[in-house]
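Run log, item B.
One chain of 130 residues. Sequence copied directly from the ordering sheet:
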Amino acid sequence: MKKPYKLQSTAEPYLWILPSVILMAIFIIIPIGFVFRMAFSQVTKSGLIKGFAGFANFQKVLGSSKFTMVLKNTVIWTILVVVLSTVLGFILALLLNNEFNKKIHFVTKWIFNRSDKIRTCDLYLPKVAL
């Protein structure tokens, strides 16, 4: 026998994800909308939107002589960070899994104990307003 159709049973999953959807809208989707709005607008140095600029901003950036240098630096930086992070992560994993792991565990325990002290140190520093 079929169960009767209930609105509550079909709406319940959506109610559970509603808070995350609201937070995503506030912190991700709305700022992306503002960025697109500013990209197609004339913006003063103080950040005020004066009017619609269309693709003039993109033509200005893409036509700049510094754009290729900035793009090249960004690509190089991204590749280096990904490769070095991966290689160093593998090296650390191999060292921690090595037969001589007692020495390595001592070193990593010492490092992490130091980093905990550094991280908790800011709790005791006075907050200075700029």
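Observations after the first pass:
- Confidence is low (pLDDT under 50) at residues 119-126.
- The helical segments are 7-39, 56-62, 67-96, 101-121.
Flagged for discussion on Thursday.
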